[in-house]
Amino acid sequence: MSDWLPFLLGFLWYALLILLPGLAFSMLLHFLLSLPMQRRDRARFFLDLLETLLARGEPVEPAILSAAAGHDRAMGVRLYMVAAHLEEGARLGEALEKTPSFLPPQVNAMLQAGEKLGDLKKVLPACREVLRVAPDTVRTTMHYMVAILLLFAPIAIWLISLLTIFVIPKFKEVAAGMGRPLWPISTFVFALNDSHILIGLEAVLFLALLALALVYVGGPGFVRWFQFRDVPVVDWISWRVPWKQKKLLRAFSAMLAVLLDGGVPEAEAVRLAGQSTANEICRQRARRVITTLASGAKLNQAIRAFDDTGEFHWRLANAIHARGGFLSALRGWHEALDARAFQQEETATHLITSGLIILNGLVVGLIATAMFGLLVMILKGVLATT
After folding, report:
1. 3-class DSSP state for residue 135?
2. Whole-angstrom Cα distance, residue 123 to residue 140?
3. 186 FRET partner, CA 20 to 30 A, in 138, 153, 297, 323?
């Protein structure tokens, strides 16, 4: 029994210091990475609830109050905030506007537009198109990037700091005492290290990845903290990112198709579709389309003011003559936009993660080469003296 006691104590010590913190970290990481999917699932569940109520012909507000009173956890605590506003006499659109973190901004704006239209059921297909899920490869790569951020970057900064403070100065003293010159690579790396460029590079990478991780985990609610009314920086960046621009274009097109199929006048349909994107750049472009319509142009010509590529123009021109409505005619284009957006997003995430791995590998390789070069020079000095 006495022989097993040290082993048991060592195992317990290992469990307390490594296994339990590692397990807690893994659970926290899983929780954070699952937040975007939880938000999307909550929105889908809410849309399913609305669709069921509308199909039965039941009023929406009392049913939402009933769901909140039943303490259903599927839609989270923000459902109770929506219910609280409904109890105060607010309409569904007003309650959603006062609880912006309950649903994604575009779905929120689309439901408000549907309420103004007088038929929520018509906008549900457009809402569902906004909630399309990215392929597993995209999500896996994003998770992998977050894992690199949380594990490798801080460890790299810590190790380089230890080398800078304790290891490299000692090796320099030994080499100087033996009168041995340093390799050019060693001199170059040590000069970078003395100026703290390597640590600064790792810190910049860490902060950049941290920002990306916060945007991914925090979602639209976090991003909106950096949005300014007079200077819509976030909306401008979203429009300039290729895959986000395609998703915004798809959201605008889907909502415009739904409104046109519902018999809404063209100018009003364009205005509501622009609002449904929850993006100020899209709203500005929608106002340009409305101005062009007011000058007497047709919709398929005026829509050129929204899409610089001109693809929306001829897609809409073909949809005007198609049977089955605008949404049915444009569905193939919406799927193509989704496919291209997912492809671009996947390519970007792979390039970012691969580039970071290669860059960190170069930093580690430079440090290792400099250290081994210094060791070789010291060994040559020892052999020369013997």
Report:
1. coil
2. 31
3. 153
| Number of C-beta neighbours around residue 146 at 10 A | 20
The identity of residue 88, as a single letter, is E
In the chain, the amino acid numbered 381 is G
Q: How far apart are CA 40 and CA 354, in angstroms?
A: 28
pTM for the whole thing? 0.75
Locate 161 and state its tokens: 């700091």
At 245, list the tokens.
Answer: 């621009």
| Angle formed by the axes of helices 120-130 and 242-261, nearest 10° | 160
Query: Phi, psi (5° rounding) for residue 89?
Result: 105, 5
Q: CB-side exposure of 298: number of CA atoms within 13 Å?
A: 7
Q: Which residue is associated with the tokens 């792979």?
A: 350
3-state SS assignment for residue 193: helix
Tens of pLDDT, residue by residue over 278-318, are 888 999 999 999 999 999 888 888 898 898 888 888 888 88
d(CA 267, CA 288): 11
CA torsion through residues 277, 281, 287, 293, sign: negative
With the CA atoms of 171, 172, 176 and 178 taken in that order, what torsion angle do they form, in degrees rounded to the nearest 10?
Answer: 10
Token pair listed for 236: 């401008």
Q: pLDDT tens, 113-136?
A: 888 777 788 788 878 877 766 555
- Residue that the structure tokens 């101005």 belong to: 291
Which pair of structure tokens corresponds to residue 316? 């809409």
Asked if 299 and 316 touch (Cβ cutoff 8 Å), the reply is yes
CA–CA separation, 79 vs 39, rounded Å?
12
Question: What is the token pair recorded at 242?
Answer: 């290729």
Amino acid at 343: Q
Rounded-to-integer distance, Cα 216 and Cα 378, Å: 49
Domain assignments of the chain as residue spans, ordered by start: 4-102, 136-226+347-385
DSSP notation for 197-210: HHHHHHHHHHHHHH
CB of 134 closer than 8 Å to CB of 244? no
**Residue 157 structure tokens:** 């900064």
Extract long-range pairs of 65-68: CB within 8 Å, 24+ residues apart.
none
- Say how far apart CA 347 and CA 282 lie, in whole Å: 25
Residue 116: CB atoms within 10 Å: 14
To 10 degrees, the CA torsion angle through 106, 110, 112, 113? Answer: 140
